[in-house]
Each structure stands twice: as structure tokens, then as C-alpha cells.
Amino acid sequence: MEVRSKSYRYPTTVRWTGQKIGTSSVAGKPNLQVATPPEFKGHEGIWSPEDLFVAAANSCLMTTFLSFAERAGLGFTAYESEAEGLLELVDGKFMFTTIVLKPKVTLKPGEDAGKAKELVMKAEANCLISNSMKTKVTVEPIVS
Amino acid sequence: MEVRSKSYRYPTTVRWTGQKIGTSSVAGKPNLQVATPPEFKGHEGIWSPEDLFVAAANSCLMTTFLSFAERAGLGFTAYESEAEGLLELVDGKFMFTTIVLKPKVTLKPGEDAGKAKELVMKAEANCLISNSMKTKVTVEPIVS
Fold first, then answer.
1. Neighbours of B65 (CB within 10 A)
2. Residue A51 contacts residue B93 (beta carbons within 8 Å)
3. Which among A16, A78, B81, B85 is least surrounded, fewest beta carbons within 10 Å?
4. What pLDDT was estimated at residue B2?
5. Exposure string (b/e) for A107-143, b if CB count within 10 Å is 16 or more?
6. Is B29 an 8 Å CB contact of chain A?
């Protein structure tokens, strides 16, 4: 039996800088300002924890798709995905109940749209971020 | 019976820009480059979906703490939190099994360290990002 013991660690820091704002940092990567969003008495124009959470799911589908498409030799010219997370009160506490991802893939001429959709769905099934969420993540691919 | 029907929507987009890299965007906020991390055959120096996920939990604890500390009238001069997410194979699929958050709070003279720790733990219990994760999120506050 093969023992798959691989694991990876992701360290990150956040430092409060005043008001409801802080700086998120990952070693060797650009800093990112984060803040409480306006609807929770915070700030406009700054990434919120909510944005980061939804963007994590959305970007994970992209990176997983890129890997699967490469392995499958799928030819495409564009990938863009709109995501929307829904925050709702469940038993008196807020949580993201659903995230809907709408990836739009533009294929090279002659490529198989069915195969592309399959690869998107396979990518989502293997997305390690969705796997880590209680949130129901649904994918509605548009392939052209 | 009070019906709490409040809900919020968080839209975000990611657009592939080449290689294993894309641009994450939220309307009215700065764009953020995202990429597959090096350990999954991606790129150095760019935020990965994994970084976003861990940063979401870490920054949510900060913003929730800021709100609770304000309401409780707690005087503090600094807040910095190191976080580490552990990605492991579970039933053949990667997921974040644990995230450890180590918030360090520096109090104003005369403030009660016990009360500050309580506020941190209460903030974590109410963090909407942790609430949305399968990941076991633990908090180890350091108050001085």
C-alpha cells in the first residue's frame, strides 16, 4: 500500500494598522491590505476576509483547471470566472452557505466543448479549497 | 419570532492571464495577482488560492476581534497574528485539515489580559470564515 504522506504548510501574517484595517503578508509575496467591509461597519475599496474566501474558491478552480487542461492537452485561449458567495445567518451565526462559480472557457477551433466542460467539473471535484469548505460550491461552466 | 433574513453577496472575478497565473478582482478594489504555487508546478512570489484561504481565516479573526474589542472598550496598541494552514491528503484528496492562528495583542497599561483573551476566543467563535470551513481552526492568543 502506498502511503501518501505529503503535506504542505501555508504561513501568513496579518498586522493591524489602525481603524478596521490591516496588512496581510506572505513571505516573498506582495502585501495585501485587508479590512472589515462596509456592511459590517468597515471600509470601502479594501479586500475583506469575505472577498478572500470567495476568491480562494474561484482561483482554486482556475489553477486546478489549468493543470487538468494541460495534462489533457486541451487548447483554449481564454478563461474567466465570475463567482458569488452568499453569506447567510444559520443558527444565529453568519456563514457562507453557497458559492456559485461561472467559469467561461474559450476554446481553440476544433476543440471539444464537452471534454472542456468535463475537465472543469473534474477540476472542481478536485479543488482543495472547495474540499476544505462547508459551503456548497456549485459550478456552471460556459464553454464556447 | 424574529426572522433574521439578512444576507450578503460577495462577487469576485478571476481572469487567466497566461502560464498558471490570473488576476483576481473585486469591483472597486485593487486587483490581486493569483497563481498556482511552486509546490504544484506554479510560480514563486504570487498569492496562491491556499494563501487566500489561510489569510481569510486570519484576517477574519482580526476584523471580528476589532469589532468585539471596540464594543467592550478594550484598549490595545497592537494586534498581529501569525497563521499556518496545513494541507493534507484525506481519502486521496487534499484539504486544509487545520489552521492555527496565533494572535498577539499588546494592551494599553491597566487593561485586563484575561478579558482580552476572552474577547479573542469569542471573536474566533463568531468568525464567519471559520464557520464556513471544514478545517479545524485553533487559536492560541498571546496577550501582553
1. 28
2. no
3. A78
4. 45
5. beeebeeeebbbbbeebbebbbbbbbbebebebebeb
6. yes
Mean pLDDT rounded to a whole number for chain B: 96
User: Side-chain half-sphere of A25: how many Cα atoms within 13 Å?
Assistant: 13
CA distances from B126 to B17, B23, B122 (A): 37, 31, 6
Residue of A128, A130, A139 best to disrupt the B interface, most CBs of B under 10 A: A128
Helices (H), ranges, B18-131: 49-72, 113-125, 128-131
Q: Residue B1: its pLDDT value, please?
A: 42
- Give me the pLDDT at residue A4, please: 54
Q: How confident is the model at residue B3 (pLDDT cuts 50, 70, 90)?
A: very low
Count other Cβ atoms within 10 Å, centred on residue A144.
Answer: 9
CATH class held by domain B49-143: alpha beta
pLDDT per residue over B92-107, tens digit each?
999 999 999 999 999 9
Amino acid at B121: M
Domain boundaries, chain A: 10-47, 49-143
Chain B residues whose beta carbon lies within 8 Å of the beta carbon of residue A8: 39, 50, 86-87
